[in-house]
Amino acid sequence: MPGSSSIDLLKSITKDQTDIGRPVRPRSVYTAYPYVDAGENRTQRFADQHKVYDILPPSEQWMPSPSTSPPITISHLALAQLWRQQARNAKRLQPSCYLSDQGYMENWREPDADVGIGAAVATSHGTISLWLRERVRIDMTVDQAIRIINRKNNIVLTLSSSGSTSSLIHPNGRVYQYGSRVEIMANDPHGNNKYAKMWYKGVSFTSEKCALVYLVDSGGTRSTADNFLQMTQDFSVSVFYTGSRYGPSCSQEVISVLQNGQYWMTDDLTQNWIINGIRISQTRDGLVRVACNNNKYQLRTSPSNGNASLSTPFVHCTASMGQTSHLFVRRGERRMHYDGSSFIVRNAGHSAGFDEKNQLKVY
User: Fold this and answer.
1) What is the pLDDT of residue 123?
2) What was the pLDDT predicted at 115?
3) Does residue 1 lie in a domain region?
């Protein structure tokens, strides 16, 4: 709370918690908390393989309308368990600030007991973290950069503050979209990873054990010379921070954003948040959906089945695990689909790729 000392704030919290019969020890509702990303290990490798289908049309409207389920405006975001108990009454609590002496958190570390599931955290690095059920965390900046970390399935979805750059990291592969280009790496269970690039010439592709690079353009398929990005690092950190506003100078703005956040729960026990114009929901089975800018940008992931999707005006990609395991990427008329055995790219009515024996096949 701007203008209040930490001692006065803690005394106020202690008094309020005693009055409502809660433990005297202050707990964090939104928190100033050290956060990993400024010093995060950017060479961390993820687990491998798997595949994807088109599971989220960009036009899908998923957020319940506030007119049918009025959002509750609150001065902070309380713990999810508390909201389950008070969904009807929406009781306001005084926010507390908890300064931790610990260093940077590991990217995949579980939340501290003082953070709590369902808590929105104002980090000391000037960002917002929302800790959800099923080991999912959503990071946000004040200018709407978004990163979803699904620790249960090793999935990361990221959108830059401008919306012009995005990424998906999944056990099946990785997608990095920047401007008009899309770089793709599909993880092969036998180590022969596939690479593709969607750009103004068409779709270039190759594999680690292939000596040639192929291009599918308006004239068909031919060999060419091209380079592909090295995508083994955690480039989601760069997507999230580059061009974004963050740091200690944003701390007061972050707290103001949290104080104006909204939360409500629908009859089917779907939890909903609106934070800084970003709409977030988590269904009863753990599915997380995030949207901003009138649904032009949508991200979602399901910890229960390892699905993930990312839809922006620049790219649409999906990934899933299990029996329907796949990786799918679409930009305009260009496509890439990989199901763990066959790898196919399409452009201007032409298709080519690698078959189950890693042999070039022109369709």
Assistant:
1) 86
2) 57
3) no
